[in-house]
Design brief:
Blueprint: E1 6-12, H1 18-31, E2 34-37, E3 40-44, H2 47-62, E4 66-72, H3 77-114, H4 120-143, H5 151-187
Antiparallel strand pairs: 1-3, 1-4, 2-3
């Protein structure tokens, strides 16, 4: 017997313009939905997902497409386990890619530190990159309905990125602050 409630959206959209198909696909993937067949997407039944699926349904309907929205509350244990596994596989791929992104960020911090490239410009650039990582993590976390085993590792890596940027920023402040302080002292 099913432990979760699910929403199943089956849809057809006209082949042209392809932008509608792409928009629907992106929106459903952004929700964290899993395609079980072409144009058949499943997602956990939450208030937010239900609201967003209704918006997607309106887009499909207004583009001349067709939709069928099903609510599933009674799945066999095997079917539910398969669905949860599909969701977790998607999240694992996302977290692995995110961890690669964190690795690149940490290598950049290491490289700039090794080069002693302690400039305000580098701080700004790296702050922007860390901001992207934080937004990326929040998006994945929002879609991680069944707590992927990589969630904690991803959070730890993000925390490490934040700590390394703080260290780098402190080094830049000490380096540039001393230079600026000397210039100010000389001007006095």
């Amino acid at each position: 017997m099913s432990q979760h409630a699910w929403i199943v959206l089956s849809y057809k959209v006209p082949s042209e313009p392809s932008t509608v198909r792409v928009r629907i696909w992106r929106n459903l993937k952004g929700l964290g939905g899993v395609y079980i067949q072409q144009s058949v997407c499943v997602a956990p039944d939450t208030a937010e997902i239900r609201r967003k699926i209704q918006q997607i349904k309106k887009i499909i309907d207004s583009s001349g497409g067709e939709t069928l929205l099903l609510e599933a509350t009674e799945l066999s244990q095997h079917s539910e386990e398969q669905l949860v596994q599909l969701f977790n596989q998607q999240r694992t791929k996302e977290y692995e890619e995110f961890l690669d992104g964190c690795g690149l960020f940490l290598k950049e911090m290491e490289s700039e530190t090794r080069k002693r490239n302690f400039t305000f410009h580098e701080v700004e650039e790296n702050e922007a990159d860390l901001g992207k990582l934080k937004r990326w993590f929040r998006k994945i976390l929002k879609r991680d309905f069944f707590q992927s085993s990589l969630e904690n590792q991803a959070k730890s890596q993000l925390d490490l990125c934040e700590a390394k940027l703080a260290e780098f920023t402190d080094q830049v402040y000490r380096s540039e602050g001393q230079k600026e302080g000397k210039v100010l002292d000389e001007e006095s």
